[in-house]
Predict the 3D structure of the following.
Amino acid sequence: MPAYHSSYNSVDSVRVINGIPLLPLLTKTRGPAPYADPTMTSDAIDEALELFRPNSFFKNFEIKGPGDRLMIYVILFISQCLNKLRATTTQAEATKQLYTLAVTNVVIPADVKFPLTQLYPSVKDKMEGDMLRQYLQQVRQETAQRLVALMYTSNGQPTQTPSKWWLCFQKRHFMGKVMN
């Protein structure tokens, strides 16, 4: 069975840096992401959150476009977030921990620390690298907010503890890689 790919692979007219498209986001977080069309109901972050669990089972992944590269980055970040949380973590603690994780040490695919750097083209110059770092920081902040909201609801009702159906993926790593 093949892995699930991004629906944003064929999106044209967006800037691409380091193989990652700077797609519009449905967010209130400040950053360089273009403003989303008011008619949009979901974005690349929603797609990555939706495809995180099924794609976590795959050890191989064929990249079919720039949307897949953004999805890989977000999936690796979600995995990093899950590893920060415990079954006893409250929603307030999780929000603080994941916000701190999102804004500190933002690794871009051009950095040596990134686990899949060979799958991404290089950055042309420092200015592009800084722009990508700001965009990915915005993506990480928004992903952390949405992940906490997903993990602390059950059947549409808020809960005090994180969902075991999310926490069970702490040991699963997309393509066997972990972002530190």
Remarks:
- The chain has a mean pLDDT of 91.
- The longest helix spans residues 126-151.
